[in-house]
Structures are given as structure tokens and as C-alpha cells.
Amino acid sequence: MRYTGVNHLAMATGDMDATIRFWRDLLRMRLVAGLGRPGYRHYFFEISETDMIAFFEWPGVEPIAEKDHGVPVSGPYAFDHVSIGVRDRDDLWEIKDALEAAGFWASEIIDHGFIFSLYSFDPNHIAIEFSCPVPGVDIRSHPVNADKHPSAAALEGPEPQPGKWPAPERPTPFAERRIYPGEGRELVLTDDE
Q1: Cβ distance 51 to 58 under 8 Å?
Q2: Span 142-185, pLDDT tens digits
Q3: Residue 111: pLDDT above 90?
Q4: Residues sharing a CB contact under 8 Å with residue 74, sequence separation 6 or more, in sequence order
Q5: What's the confidence (pLDDT) of residue 71?
């Protein structure tokens, strides 16, 4: 397997126009695709050459309750915040200035030792972080686990461990591989298709 990034992270909104104004116009992420029909929209914003954030607009969706980034919760929960990478500290300051000028709360720039971060919320109250690497620090090249009480699986190290899951008994033969049509084909279909 070879991953290339997060193709897209799909979120929800009840107000696509406010979402477009924030992600496209304030944060300057291009709106690269839009799908829609009555009661449904699905729009994609370009974060980088390989990563996008997408929003479904459904009737009745309301902004979520604001929850501070990384603060523990109880009960069913799946998502805390998304961190979007930027090139350097200058980008963090530019985003901070833009957010504050538009009336959005923006944290101070925080030094986490391996990244510098800025925190905020979008109009849907989705917790967002913007991060850039600390110069000279690369945890991808030199993984570090500073957990004083790591889990058993974490103690096995940073690399994928073979034999922890069953191998496919019969990989799908090329002749049996099928791809089925789904939402979005209208973005690329021509009148001849």
C-alpha cells in the first residue's frame, strides 16, 4: 500500500454559502468541485495538491457545540479537530491576522516542540488547527514516543507489524475487479457519455 495523503475529509454544514466564504474566500482554498440537487450539496475545497476538505450541506444541520481542541470528553465521540499543514510561521501569522480581521477567534501561536500551531473554529464550529514544522525537527524521519505509559501495541515500535492481521486468502484477480458508478461522475462526464 502507498498512501498519498487525505484525499478529502468530509464534514457537514447547514449553510454552504457561509462555508464557502470561510474556506474559499477567507482561507483562500479553491472550490474545486460541487455537486448538488434539492436537499443536498457536496462541495470540495483544495488544501494542497493531494488533500481536500469537503462539506455536505443538508437541511436542518446546525453548527456543533464548540469544544476546545484536545479537551477530553466522555461518551460516544469520533472527531476532535483537523490540523491543516502550512509552510512556515509566516503563513500562521497571515492566517491569524485574516481570521481576527474577519471576527473569528484565533489562538496565539503555540510551540509544541515539533510543530507551531494556531487554533480556531470555522462557521460550523468545527475545531481547526493550522500547523507548520519547527525548523530542524522531523519526527517522521526520527519517530519519538514520549508516553510514560505506552500501550502494548505502541511498545512494538513505529513500523507496521506483520502478522497482526490475517492476510487475504484470495486477492481479487484482475479480471474480477469492478468499479461501480457513484455520485460525482457528472463532474467529468461529457455530453457523449
Answers
A1: no
A2: 999 999 999 999 999 999 999 999 999 999 999 999 999 888 88
A3: yes
A4: none
A5: 92
Distance CA 103, CA 97 (A): 10
Q: How confident is the model at residue 11 (pLDDT cuts 50, 70, 90)?
A: very high
- In angstroms, the CA 168 to CA 162 distance is 13
Q: Which pairing describes strands 115-121 and 127-133: parallel, antiparallel, or unpaired?
A: antiparallel
Give the residue among 62, 64, 48 at the shortest CA–CA distance from 121: 64
**Which tens digits make up the pLDDT trace of 100-109?**
999 999 999 9
> 122: burial class by Cβ within 10 Å (0-12, 13-18, 19+)?
buried
Residues 52, 32 contacting (CB under 8 angstroms): yes
Strand order of the β-sheet with 115-121 is: 82-85, 127-133, 115-121, 110-111
Measure Cα distances from 42 to 8, 135, 165, 174 in Å.
12, 37, 35, 32
Contact 54, 11 (CB under 8 A): yes
DSSP annotation of 89: H
Supply the pLDDT for residue 191.
Answer: 66
**Cell numbers that stand for 142 in this block:** 526520527
